[in-house]
Specification:
The chain has 344 residues and is of the alpha/beta class. It folds into two domains: 206 residues, Zn-dependent exopeptidases (Aminopeptidase), CATH 3.40.630; 113 residues, no CATH class. It contains nine helices and twelve strands. The structure holds zinc ion (ZN). Zinc ion (ZN) binds next to loops.
């Protein structure tokens, strides 16, 4: 167990985090199970998230921090049947009421394929300061626990982060498909170590900064006052002489995905089409979005011979709107079809 080789400083109560406050959010819970787990005692991600969150909160409290929990048992936050959007917004509202220095959402990812495992840290879109720095500090410790995992540090546009007015991060501690999680004993040990690693990341961060009074982020500018029906992102030039309308805009693609995401969000579009010039006709939609799939299927008619596929692509998963990525030899025709269509 690599992490146990690291001198762990939290042996007894101390004041290393006095003055700090945190909202710990154990992802999912109640009817929302999260990613499926193939582990003997845990039915799904929701259970593991809770285990890590409670242990983490306990360590932070022992270090003198003020900790608020969105849930402390296997319930949803609202404890009533509410839509997922309302549930996530309620968690963010709870955090906004408590105005902690950090909101920390705990998750575990999963992959179906034989993809390599990964530790993923997401900080709220548009925030490059404390949330990103804390993410780096936590990522460093989790990488010691999982030295063979890939790492990802990115801005994330998840609802619990987006609706949060303060500094907010989301941790995907590991993938549930990790063979290390196949035995109960190993899993218990790892969950505890995950909590310790995250706590260590927080403590290391806190050493070099002092708990600032929370300031709400008001720097996000939106380009349009009302939400756009759709935004078309085109890679390369389009010959279409279409002026931006009230309900749509056409912007140029950029390789920096975070920057592009930032631009997309400023338009507050309902639907985003990202068009690439290509010989192969292919329509990709985010695999968890039914609406995206529906639109992709209806667009197939325009692109004869096109394949439609669900994808977990970062850009598509992080856009708050329904987002589709389309490779086509007929960029101009598709732009015109989208603009004229009442369907999307
Ligand atoms: Zn999750």
């Amino acid at each position: 167990m690599p992490y146990s080789n690291i001198p762990f400083e939290i042996k007894s109560k101390n004041n290393s985090l006095s003055g700090w406050s945190f909202v710990i959010d154990a992802g999912h819970g109640g009817a929302e199970r999260g990613a499926a787990a193939n582990i003997p005692f845990a039915s799904a991600e929701a259970d593991l998230n809770l285990g890590v969150s409670l242990t983490l909160g306990g360590i932070l409290e022992a270090c003198g921090a003020n900790v608020f929990y969105t849930r402390k048992a296997d319930f949803s936050f609202n404890q009533t049947e509410s839509s997922l959007t309302d549930e996530l917004r309620s968690r963010a509202d709870f955090s906004n009421e408590h105005a902690p220095q950090f909101f920390i959402s705990i998750h575990h990812n999963a992959s179906k394929g034989p993809r390599k495992n990964r530790v993923e840290l997401y900080y709220k879109l548009f925030t490059k300061g404390p949330a990103r720095e804390l993410s780096i500090s936590i990522l460093k410790e989790l990488s010691k626990l999982y030295p063979n995992h890939d790492t990802a540090l990115r801005s994330g546009n998840f609802a619990v982060l987006r609706e949060n007015q303060g500094e907010a991060i989301l941790v995907e501690c590991t993938y549930l498909s990790d063979p290390l999680l196949s035995s109960q004993l190993e899993t218990f040990k790892l969950l505890k170590h995950e909590a310790e690693a995250i706590a260590m990341g927080i403590i290391n961060y806190a050493k070099y900064s002092s708990p600032q009074a929370v300031q709400f982020d008001t720097s996000v500018e939106t380009v349009s006052d009302s939400a756009l029906d759709f935004l078309i992102v085109v890679k390369g030039k389009t010959d279409s002489m279409i002026e931006a309308g009230e309900k749509f805009r056409i912007i140029e693609y950029m390789d920096d995905e975070e920057e592009l995401l930032r631009r997309i969000e400023r338009y507050r579009p309902k639907t985003v089409f990202i068009l690439f010039e290509s010989a192969n006709e292919k329509i990709e939609h985010y695999y968890r979005s039914n609406k995206g799939k529906e639109i992709a299927e209806s667009m197939k008619v325009l692109l004869s011979g096109a394949t439609v596929a669900g994808t977990s692509n970062y850009l598509l998963s992080q856009t708050s709107a329904v987002c589709l990525m389309i490779s086509t030899a007929k960029v101009n025709r598709i732009v015109e079809a989208i603009v004229k269509s009442d369907e999307w």
